[in-house]
Specification:
This protein is an alpha+beta fold and 182 residues long. The protein is 21% helix and 39% strand. The strands form 2 sheets. The chain has a 5-stranded mixed β-sheet.
Length: 182
């Protein structure tokens, strides 16, 4: 699936999500990604854009705490970038021509999550979501809302609001977004 196909699929899914009210009670649309061999998913409603990382310059800042890797300028605004692989305790995600940036809406601004690839944008039944076992992903449990199977693999579903709140105590996200207002 090409970058253009994914972008069109996200735009189409977002439009469908806005139009449908009855189906949303039974299904959810997710963006499925892989970062450092970890399968994750984001709700389409929290996903703003998918960007090829080769077109981005990530500015590293001193004294950042993992998984925050830096800032990127997107449409004239600075957004914090988190490494999706480091987020779940794995290896760093790919940068350069192979990586992708999933831009998500946080409660106080946008947040970029660096991943190796976007594998699909699709609809799943809400009944397919399962609770995460307490022993799984213990370090990331505070922002994983569920686990869902897709393409015969379990994917952790990242709740962007919970992720934002989890990171707020460790990294200066509010300060980064205040720079955009200055």
């Amino acid at each position: 699936m090409t970058e253009k196909d994914l972008a069109e699929r996200v735009e189409q899914a977002t439009s469908e999500l806005a139009e449908s009210t009855d189906a949303s009670d039974e299904t959810s649309q997710l963006v499925f990604v892989n970062a450092a061999c970890i399968d994750m998913a984001f709700h389409i409603s929290s996903t703003v854009e998918l960007v090829t990382a080769q077109h981005l310059t990530i500015t590293n800042l001193p004294h950042l705490k993992s998984p925050l890797v830096g800032l990127v300028r997107r449409r004239g605004r600075l957004i914090p970038v988190i490494d999706g692989g480091l987020l779940i305790g794995g290896m760093p995600a790919a940068r350069g021509s192979h990586g992708r940036l999933v831009v998500c809406k946080g409660p106080e601004g946008e947040l970029g999550i660096l991943v190796d690839e976007v594998t699909s944008v699709t609809t799943v039944k809400n009944g397919d979501f399962r609770e995460m076992a307490s022993s799984q992903w213990s370090s990331a449990g505070e922002f994983i809302s569920a686990v869902v199977e897709f393409s015969s693999k379990d994917h952790v579903v990242i709740d962007v609001t919970l992720l934002w709140n989890s990171l707020r105590s460790r990294v200066p996200l509010r300060e980064v977004h205040s720079w955009n207002r200055a």
